[in-house]
C-alpha cells in the first residue's frame, strides 16, 4: 500500500518541481524534472555543456511549448542554441510571429497593420546566460527557468506563455564555461571543495575561464562580430527582434546583486523610452528581492556606454536591454570576507528570481512594451531625418585594398542598411572624419553611403560617429575623483568609431546623396588567371594580400619584397609589393600561387619578365628575399590572456599562419632554437622577469642579438624599454603631478581613446599603409621617449603633435602633451637581430583592422630587413 502511495505522489503535479519553485507552484508531470535529468538539483553542481544539451533535448521532447534552434558552433565545435518557449498555440505559429516581429522592426512602410501587430504580437523576451565562462550561475538559472516554462501549470506561467515568447540563449560562451567546469571538476575530491578563495578549485588555470577559445571577451564582440558565437547570436536576434533583453553575469564574491538602471555615462544614441522602463523593471526586481530580504544595488558599477555589450547593443536596436550581476560563488562555494558563504545555488537563485520576474513583468505589460518598441524604431528614423549630431549620412570611400568593403560587410552583419552610389556625387557639406569644417567632396560611384534615417539608425550612428559624446558633468566628477585619488568610472574604452578602426576615409553629411542602390551583400570579384612566365606580383596592405603572403610562406614558396614602386604588364605596383619568382621555386609554384590567391581573394598579376615598364627591374639587388617566419607566441603566466588571444586570433584566423605557443620556462631554456620570431603579448615586465629569471631574460636577449626578431605588444614593450631592456627608446618616468602640486604623478591611463598618428612611409613595416596620418588606439598610461641620436627608420609610427593628437574618446588633460610625437611603433637592430615594439595593441579585439597591417608586416617581414 505504501509503495502505491509513493508512486502516486511521484506522478502527481505537486511532486514535480525544481529547487527554486515558488510556493504552491504546480507542474506537468510528463515533463522530466531537473533532478531526474541531471542527477542533482539545479545549483548543486556546475552542469557541463554535454549534460546541458541532453537536458534541453529531453525537456524539448516532452513539451510542445518549446522550439530549439542551433544557431552556431563555437570554435571548439560546441552547439549554440536559441530556445523559443511559449504557449502551444504560439509555438505552432512561430513563423507568423517572426514575420510580425520583422514587420514591426521596419515601420517605414506605415499602414494600419502595424497597430494590429502591436495588439496581437507576443512580447519577445531574450535571455542571455554566462557570456563569461567563469560566471557560471547564469546557465544554472536558465535551466531552472526552462523547466518552469516548459512544465509550469500555474496562472503566472500560463500568462507568460500566452503573452510572451521567451528566447533563451542557454550558454553564450560554451568553450570558456567548459574550461571553468573542467577546472572545478579536476580539482574537486570526494570531500567538500575548499572554501578558500586561493584554492585551486576557486583559482582556476591560466588564463581563466572568462573568455572564448581565443581568449576574447565575447561581451565586447556584439558589433565587432569576430566569433561564430556572436555571428549566430546576432543573426538569431535579428530573426526575432526581441523587445526585452537581459544579460546574466557575475561580479565579485563579496558583492550582492546588480540590476538596472545603469550608472552614467549613457550612450546618447539610446532610445528615449529606455530610462522609464529601467525604473519600472527596477521597481519590479526590487519587490521580488525584497520578498527574500536580499540585498541589491542599482545606478553604480556598470554603464551601457560602449555599444558592444550584451545589453547595450540590443538597446541601440530599440530593445529594453538590461544587465544582471550576481555575486560569484567562484568554484561553487567560497567564504567571503564577512565570514558568510556564497554558493552556486545562491548565485543561481538570485538570477532565476530576477529573470523570472522579468518574464512575468514583460508579459503583464506586453502591449506597452511592444508599442514603445515600435516607437523607438520610428524614433531612430526621425533622428536620422533631423541629422542629429550633424549626421544624416556617413559616406565611406571604397578603397582598392578592400577596407571599405570589409567595413560595409560588418555593418550589414549588424543589420545596418548600406547603400552605394550608382554615379559620382558632389557633396557640398561633407565633414571628413578628423576635421571640423565642411568642404566640398566629389564622391565616386561605388562609394558606400549609410543613411541614419533607418530603423537601425541608432546603432549605425553609435558605431560610426567619429566621437561618442560624454556628458560634461560626468567628466567633471571624474576629474575631481582623480584629484582625490578615487577610482574612475570608465568601464571600458571611450572610443571605437569603425571608420577609424578600419582605416577607412569617411565623411559625415547633413544631406543625403541621390542615385543610391541598396547593398544586400558583398561578393568577391571573379579573378581571371593567367600563367606568368617570370612569376607573379601582388600589392601589399590588404587583408587578402596579407593572407596570401602568409599562405605562400607557410607553404614554403619563395617570395621577394620590392621596396620601390614599379609598373609591369600595365599594372602599377606601390612600394612594398611582393614578387613570386617562378624560376627560383619548384614547378608547382604556378598551381600553388593560383590556389592560394583564389582562397585569399587576392588580385595577382602575372609577370612575363624581370624587366619592368617603369621603376627598378625585379632582378635588382634592392628586391630582397623574404625569410620564412618560424613563430613562437609566448603564453601562460604572467602573460595577459586577452592580449595573447587577440594576437593568436590574428595569426591563426586572419593570416592562417602556424605558430607554437610556448611558456616563459621553455623560452628561458633552449626553447627558441627552432624559431626566428618571438611575439610577447602584453605582460608586466617585473612579473615576466620573475618568470624568466635573470638567465632566461639574458638568453632571450642573446637570441635576438644572434638574429632573432622580438616583437613586443602593449605592456611587454615596457619590459624591453626598461632599465634592464635592450631597446634604445625608453619608458618615460614622470616625477611631478599632473596638476603641478608636487608629489607622485596622478593616474594617467587613457581609457581607450583614438589618437592621430604619423607614419614613416619608407619603413617595410608600413608596406601597404600609404597614409602619412591615420588613427590608432591609446589604452594605457605608458609613454616612450626616443633617444637624441634617433636613427632613420626607428620611429616607424609616432603620435601627432599635441594640438592634433586627439581624434575621439577621453584623454586626461595632460596626456596629449605627454604622448605627442612619442613612438607608437618602434624598431631597431640589435646585433644581427631586431626588436619591433608596439606601445599599444595593434589587433585589439579584432576591432582594429587598420593597424592589423602593421602587426602582419612585423611578423611576415621582420626577419627580412
Strands, helices and their partners?
Layout: H1 2-11, H2 34-38, H3 49-62, E1 66-73, E2 79-85, H4 88-92, H5 94-105, H6 113-120, E3 123-129, H7 137-151, H8 155-163, E4 164-169, H9 174-186, H10 200-203, H11 228-240, E5 244-251, E6 257-258, H12 274-292, H13 312-316, E7 320-327, E8 333-335, E9 341-343, H14 344-364, H15 366-385, E10 393-396, H16 403-413, E11 418-421, E12 425-432, E13 439-443, E14 448-451, H17 457-464, H18 472-483, H19 498-502, E15 506-509, E16 516-519, E17 535-538, H20 543-554, E18 560-562, E19 566-568, E20 571-573, E21 577-581, H21 589-600, E22 605-607, E23 614-615, E24 624-625, E25 631-634, H22 641-654, E26 660-662, H23 664-668, E27 677-680, H24 685-705, E28 709-713, H25 715-721, E29 730-731, E30 753-759, E31 773-778, E32 784-785, E33 795-799, E34 806-808, H26 815-819, E35 823-830, E36 833-838, H27 852-861
Parallel strand pairs: 3-4, 3-5, 5-7, 25-26, 25-27, 27-28, 28-36
Antiparallel strand pairs: 1-2, 2-4, 6-7, 8-9, 10-14, 10-15, 11-14, 11-16, 12-13, 12-15, 17-21, 17-22, 18-21, 18-24, 19-20, 19-23, 29-32, 30-31, 30-33, 30-34, 33-35, 35-36
Helix pairs in contact: 3-7, 7-14, 8-14, 12-14, 20-21, 20-27, 24-25
Q: How would you sum up this structure, described in words?
A:
This protein is of the alpha+beta class. The protein folds into four domains: about 350 residues, Aminopeptidase, CATH 3.40.630; about 130 residues, no CATH class; about 90 residues, no CATH class; about 220 residues, Rossmann fold (3-Layer(aba) Sandwich). Helix content is about 35%, strand content about 20%. It is built from 27 helices and 36 strands. The strands form seven sheets. Strands 25, 26, 27, 28, 30, 31, 33, 34, 35 and 36 form a ten-stranded mixed beta sheet that branches. A seven-stranded mixed beta sheet has the order 1-2-4-3-5-7-6. Helix 20 runs antiparallel to helix 21 and helix 20 packs parallel to helix 27. It is globular. The N terminus is likely disordered.
Amino acid at each position: 500500500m505504501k509503495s502505491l502511495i509513493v508512486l502516486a505522489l511521484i506522478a502527481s503535479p505537486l511532486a514535480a518541481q525544481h529547487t527554486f519553485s515558488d510556493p504552491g507552484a504546480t507542474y506537468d508531470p510528463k515533463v522530466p524534472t531537473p533532478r531526474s535529468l541531471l542527477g542533482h538539483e539545479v545549483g548543486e553542481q556546475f552542469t557541463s555543456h554535454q549534460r546541458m544539451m541532453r537536458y534541453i533535448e529531453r525537456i524539448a521532447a516532452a513539451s510542445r511549448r518549446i522550439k530549439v534552434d542551433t544557431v552556431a558552433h563555437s570554435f571548439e565545435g560546441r552547439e549554440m542554441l536559441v530556445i523559443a518557449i511559449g504557449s502551444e498555440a504560439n509555438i505552432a505559429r512561430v513563423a507568423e510571429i517572426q514575420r510580425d516581429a520583422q514587420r514591426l522592426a521596419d515601420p517605414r512602410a506605415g499602414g494600419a497593420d502595424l497597430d494590429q501587430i502591436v495588439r496581437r504580437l507576443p512580447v519577445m523576451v531574450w535571455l542571455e546566460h554566462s557570456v563569461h565562462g567563469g560566471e557560471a550561475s547564469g546557465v544554472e538559472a536558465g535551466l531552472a527557468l526552462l523547466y518552469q516554462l516548459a512544465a509550469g501549470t500555474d496562472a503566472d506561467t500560463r500568462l507568460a506563455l500566452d503573452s510572451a515568447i521567451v528566447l533563451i540563449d542557454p550558454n553564450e560562451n560554451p568553450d570558456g564555461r567548459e574550461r571553468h567546469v573542467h577546472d572545478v571538476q579536476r580539482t574537486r575530491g570526494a570531500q567538500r571543495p575548499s572554501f578558500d578563495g586561493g584554492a585551486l578549485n576557486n583559482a582556476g588555470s591560466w588564463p581563466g575561464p572568462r573568455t572564448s577559445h581565443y581568449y576574447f571577451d565575447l561581451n565586447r564582440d556584439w558589433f565587432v562580430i569576430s566569433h561564430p558565437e556572436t555571428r549566430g547570436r546576432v543573426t538569431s536576434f535579428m530573426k526575432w527582434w526581441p523587445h526585452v533583453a537581459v544579460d546574466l553575469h557575475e561580479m565579485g564574491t563579496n558583492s550582492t546583486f546588480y540590476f538596472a538602471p545603469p550608472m552614467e555615462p549613457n550612450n546618447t544614441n539610446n532610445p528615449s523610452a529606455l530610462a522609464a522602463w529601467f525604473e519600472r523593471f527596477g521597481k519590479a526586481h526590487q519587490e521580488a528581492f525584497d520578498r527574500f530580504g536580499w540585498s541589491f544595488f542599482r545606478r553604480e558599477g556598470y554603464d551601457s556606454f560602449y555599444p558592444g555589450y550584451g545589453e547595450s547593443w540590443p538597446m541601440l536596436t530599440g530593445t529594453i536591454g538590461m544587465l544582471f550581476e550576481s555575486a560569484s560563488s567562484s568554484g561553487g562555494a567560497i567564504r567571503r570576507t564577512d565570514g558568510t558563504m556564497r554558493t552556486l545555488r545562491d548565485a543561481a537563485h538570485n538570477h532565476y528570481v530576477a529573470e523570472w520576474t522579468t518574464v512575468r513583468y514583460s508579459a503583464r505589460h506586453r502591449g506597452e512594451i511592444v508599442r514603445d518598441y515600435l516607437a523607438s524604431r520610428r524614433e531612430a528614423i526621425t533622428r536620422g531625418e533631423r541629422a542629429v549630431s550633424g549626421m544624416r549620412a556617413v559616406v565611406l570611400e571604397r578603397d582598392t585594398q578592400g577596407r571599405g568593403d570589409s567595413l560595409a560587410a560588418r555593418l550589414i552583419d549588424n543589420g545596418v542598411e548600406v547603400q552605394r552610389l550608382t554615379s559620382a556625387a558632389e557633396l557640398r557639406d561633407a565633414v571628413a572624419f578628423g576635421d571640423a569644417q565642411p568642404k566640398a567632396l566629389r564622391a565616386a560611384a561605388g562609394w558606400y553611403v549609410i543613411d541614419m534615417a533607418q530603423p537601425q539608425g541608432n546603432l549605425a550612428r553609435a558605431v560610426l560617429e567619429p566621437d561618442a559624446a560624454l556628458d560634461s558633468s560626468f567628466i567633471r566628477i571624474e576629474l575631481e575623483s582623480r584629484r582625490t585619488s578615487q577610482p574612475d568610472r570608465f568601464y571600458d574604452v571611450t572610443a571605437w568609431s569603425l571608420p577609424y578602426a578600419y582605416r577607412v576615409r569617411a565623411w559625415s553629411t547633413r544631406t543625403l546623396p541621390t542615385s543610391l542602390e541598396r547593398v544586400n551583400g558583398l561578393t568577391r570579384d571573379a579573378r581571371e588567371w593567367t600563367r606568368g612566365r617570370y612569376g607573379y606580383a601582388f600589392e601589399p596592405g590588404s587583408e587578402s594580400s596579407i593572407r596570401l603572403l602568409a599562405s605562400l610562406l607557410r607553404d614554403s614558396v619563395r617570395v621577394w619584397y620590392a621596396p620601390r614602386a614599379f609598373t609591369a604588364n600595365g599594372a602599377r605596383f606601390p612600394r612594398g609589393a611582393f614578387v613570386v619568382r617562378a624560376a627560383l621555386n619548384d614547378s608547382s609554384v604556378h598551381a600553388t600561387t593560383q590556389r592560394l590567391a583564389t582562397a585569399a581573394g587576392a588580385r595577382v598579376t602575372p609577370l612575363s619578365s624581370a624587366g619592368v615598364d617603369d621603376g627598378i627591374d625585379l632582378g635588382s639587388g634592392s628586391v630582397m628575399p623574404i625569410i620564412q617566419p618560424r613563430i613562437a607566441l609566448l603564453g601562460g603566466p604572467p602573460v595577459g590572456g586577452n592580449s595573447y588571444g587577440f594576437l593568436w586570433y590574428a595569426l591563426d584566423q586572419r593570416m592562417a599562419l602556424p605558430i607554437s605557443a610556448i611558456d616563459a620556462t621553455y623560452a628561458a631554456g633552449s626553447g627558441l632554437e627552432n624559431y626566428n620570431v618571438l611575439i610577447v603579448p602584453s605582460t608586466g615586465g617585473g612579473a615576466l622577469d620573475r618568470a624568466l629569471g635573470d638567465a632566461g631574460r639574458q638568453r632571450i636577449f642573446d637570441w635576438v642579438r644572434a638574429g632573432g626578431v622580438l616583437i613586443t605588444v602593449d605592456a611587454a614593450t615596457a619590459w624591453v624599454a626598461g632599465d634592464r631592456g635592450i631597446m634604445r627608446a625608453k619608458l618615460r618616468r614622470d616625477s611631478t603631478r599632473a596638476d603641478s602640486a608636487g608629489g607622485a604623478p596622478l593616474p594617467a591611463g587613457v581609457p581607450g581613446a583614438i589618437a592621430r598618428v604619423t607614419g614613416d612611409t619608407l619603413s617595410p613595416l608600413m608596406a601597404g599603409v600609404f597614409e602619412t596620418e591615420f588613427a590608432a588606439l591609446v589604452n594605457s598610461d605608458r609613454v616612450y621617449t626616443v633617444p637624441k641620436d634617433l636613427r632613420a627608420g626607428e620611429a616607424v609610427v609616432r603620435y601627432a603633435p599635441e594640438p592634433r593628437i586627439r581624434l575621439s574618446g577621453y584623454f586626461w588633460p595632460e596626456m596629449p602633451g605627454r604622448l605627442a610625437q612619442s613612438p607608437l611603433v618602434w624598431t631597431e637592430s640589435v646585433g644581427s637581430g631586431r626588436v619591433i615594439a608596439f606601445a599599444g595593441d595593434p589587433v585589439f579585439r579584432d576591432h582594429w583592422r587598420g593597424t592589423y597591417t602593421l602587426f602582419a608586416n612585423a611578423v611576415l617581414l621582420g626577419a627580412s630587413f
